[in-house]
Amino acid sequence: MALSSSTLLLVKSHLSLSSFSNPSLYFRRGETRLRVRPISLSIINARADERKEDIVIVGAGIAGLATAVSLQRLGIRTLVLEQGESLRTGGTSLTLFKNGWKALDAIGVGNDLRSQFLEIQGRCFSWLMISLGIRLENHWFIFEEYPGICRLAIKSEDGRELRSFRFKDEDESQEVRAVERRVLLETLASRLPPDAISFSSKLANIERSENGETLLELEDGIRISAKILIACDGIRSPVAKLMGFPEPNYVGHCAFRGLAYFPEGQPFEPKVNYIYGKGVRAGYVPVSETKVYWFICYNSSSPGPKITDPSILRQQAEQLVRNWPTELINLINLTPDDTIIRTSLVDRWLWPSISPPASTGSIVLVGDAWHPMTPNLGQGACCALEDSIVLTKKLAEAIKSKRTSVEDAFKAYGSERWPRIFPLTVRAYLVGALLQWDNPVICAVRDNIVVPKLVRLGPVLEHTNFEFDPL
């Protein structure tokens, strides 16, 4: 899940963007939360010194770069504005399932990434627990490999095997790999022309011109007039705020994440390992030959203060799992300072007939800016990639065929994506809530009835079955 710093937001109206034709917003960094106050509205006239652009994308994250590359493949140029001095390559890794890989293949970068990251076996266990909504406590999850078979064995603390599965029996087409965020962004950016991304381009003001275009003023004074604005500016998106969307909701869990580095080669098989404890769950998975991603998710009544000191983050993470298997502690100790982070988990539910639409006029939201979701299904990045493909096709048809307007194309994008996004966001939230429970009755039912007799993996994998035609 992409995260962005909080922003001070001053909106020139009490109303949402969909209710007026000349919105204006001002914002700057440096505050710990968003604040809104009304000021007067105005329609401004175009100036001779404004740079003219057909399509501007705000944010060079996964959604922004994927959308730019998708449009580029169809011969449509965009300008990507990124407030940072370079790509936002901090953080750890993300897990992509087969729907994410189909999108990357459509964009044309799938094979380049496959060659750098290990294909994971045994991810089905996480999905098994997702389907049950059960937190496993005091159990070890053992992945065993026999000749020609990847076997997943679920065992209790006393060594009793509850059940085993063969992943490919349920879905032969499934593909799961953990991908470094840095490498994904750099690969996408490499597909764009050298001048496609404008770094150090922090927005200071957004206004609507009298001819309906969006006027963007950067902090350095540069002004850009855009016919189309695609907002991919993350979970704290100022554009989403302007369009009437509420702040993302904190779901009651925080997570430590890290990317352990083994210069001589990491010792783990390409399998996901999960460990569940009271109010805490953790896991680790090899990403490449030298790196292993790990996470620790824990209950917290509030997000708490922002902490960036890696020594404090490392100490807090170790404290949560101090009595757990030593390999998890070793991974934390082998994590470079710049790859250990702590985030609060948030989401936004797109309620039918209540939430604002994904677009208004020639402005549209993509990825986390529209639908932040918790990482419990591993679908945040996958859905952002799906968004980029669907939006590209709708927009390209409007631009090239002229049979439909850009505004109608954006509405069609929102209508098509909402039935996909809303259920996944809700399900991801419920999974996180259920996996944090501590109930001995549920554990007994799980061990003696649900796991041995009722579980099927097929339905658990269903939401990765997203199909679309190549660009």
Automatic annotation (TrEMBL):
Keywords: Monooxygenase, Oxidoreductase. It comes from Solanum pennellii (Tomato). This is Monooxygenase 2 isoform X3. InterPro entries: FAD-bd, FAD/NAD-bd_sf, MOase. Belongs to the 3-hydroxybenzoate 6-hydroxylase family. One of its GO terms (molecular function) is monooxygenase activity. Residues 54-420 form the FAD-binding domain.
